[in-house]
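Issue 218. Parser rejects a valid record. Input:
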Amino acid sequence: MGRRNTSRILISSAFLALAMIGVDVMAQTAVHPSTTGTTQQTQPSKGAQNHNAVESNPACQRIIAECKKLGFIQGQWKKDNGLWKDCFDPVVKGGGTPTRDGKPISVPVSSSDIQSCRAADSQHK
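Output the parser choked on:
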């Protein structure tokens, strides 16, 4: 009966270890309420909602297409190659020039597309 008890102890220990690991993982990934008593929001950020709004505008779609043709990629803003931060925003919102590797780059879009997209962008703020 010594072997049988040893097997039970080992199986119980393994199960207990796995259960504790699972609880630890769940605790790390759970949504915790903030200190003010409200829970975290699961809705997309305001910037993401705004991008969705301008993406449906034909003028904005043409600007986005030109940025993509120049090689700008969504999510690569840390590499100075981001679709939104490095190309779209400077063209539509002004305040700068689209850049790549710190150098200005020209985006071939019409001024009427820029004005139309700015109008659509300002409506969704």
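Fixed in the parser; the record now loads. DSSP finds five helices and two strands in the chain.
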